[in-house]
Amino acid sequence: MELMVIIVALIIFFIVISIHLSNPKAKGERGEARIVKDLDQIGYTEYEGYSLRNVYVPYNGKTTEIDVLYITSKGIVVVESKNYSGYIFGSENQRQWTATLYAGKYSSEKSHKYKFYNPIWQNRTHIKALQEYLGGVKAFSFIVFGTNCELKSITYNPENVCVCREDAFKKSIKNKFRGLDDIYDQTMVKELYNRLLPLTTVSEEMKERHVNAIKESARSKVCPRCGGTLVLRTARKGKNAGNQFYGCSNYPECRFIRNIE
User: Fold this and answer.
1) Which of 80, 94, 186, 249 gets the most CB atoms within 10 Å of its CB?
2) Structurally, what CATH architecture does the domain formed by 32-202 represent?
């Protein structure tokens, strides 16, 4: 009897862990942690700097959240981390990018396509906010995807931004920094870090304002969770059957909904 209880407990434990690991937020946090680890290795071997995660920068009376920052003598690396699977298609000039998952030869559907907001534009806003807050600092834009995807067709100006996977991130930074002169001494690097560090520890009030801003974004038909498009849908089952709501175009990967008031 005791053995059976232990087995059931272990099964429940592994189910809970599996659900947690598959959660989009958890995936994002693991991706950011891997990026910071890469930055720490770069700092130890070649380009010394300070890394920060989840930085809430004031901007236009609201806040914008930057996934990862790396503050160095060359400038500040601004990282937008993405954890989509499948083939990634997009252009610097397109509002929406596409992640395509092929279902396999035995599936009735050939592929699933998910739209998400242009991460280059997203990071451009982050950099504007950062420059306004700090006063015109040098910033480098990096869009870093996880290794579960393939960057199939991505077009952009490499002078403005770098788009890569996690396994090419360290090499991409080294290539960007190679030949660049230092523009900040270590005193200035430390000062920038000290100014940004408090933005990683936000109050409940600031978090609430940030959440409210996300809700406002939803009203503009852009999914605040993944950047996809909110489309009008009708519930088919349950107590809300027949009611309309806005759901994310990336369903079922993203399950964000907004009820119609």
Assistant:
1) 80
2) 3-Layer(aba) Sandwich (3.40)
Angle between the N-to-C axes of helices 24-45 and 169-177, in degrees from 0 to 180, rounded to the nearest 10: 40
Which has the closest alpha carbon to 37: 164, 170, 231, 145?
A: 170
DSSP strand pairing (244-248 vs 230-234): antiparallel
Query: Which residues on neighbouring strands pair with residue 162, listed in sequence order?
Result: 142
Nearest CA to 81 among 169, 2, 10? Answer: 169
Q: What DSSP string runs through 124-160?
A: HHHHHHHHHHHTS--EEEEEEE-TTEEEEEEE--TTT
CA distance 4 to 6: 5
CA–CA separation, 190 and 210 (whole Å): 27
Distance of CA 260 to CAs 35, 95, 219, 240, 243, Å? 38, 25, 10, 12, 9
Confirm if 70 and 39 have CB atoms less than 8 A apart: yes
At residue 14 the predicted structure's pLDDT band, cuts being 50, 70 and 90, is very low
From-to residues of CATH 3.40.1350 in the chain? 32-202
pLDDT score for 3: 62
* Residue found by looking up tokens 């009611």 in the block: 243
- Asked if 123 contacts 184 with a C-beta cutoff of 8 angstroms, the reply is no
Instruction: Note the Cα 204 to chain centre separation in Å.
Output: 22
Q: Is residue 179 classed as helix, strand or coil in its secondary structure?
A: coil
Q: Is the backbone peptide bond immediately before 252 cis, with ω within 30 degrees of 0?
A: yes
What's the CA gap between 120 and 143, in Å, rounded? 7
Q: What percent of the chain has pLDDT over 70?
A: 77
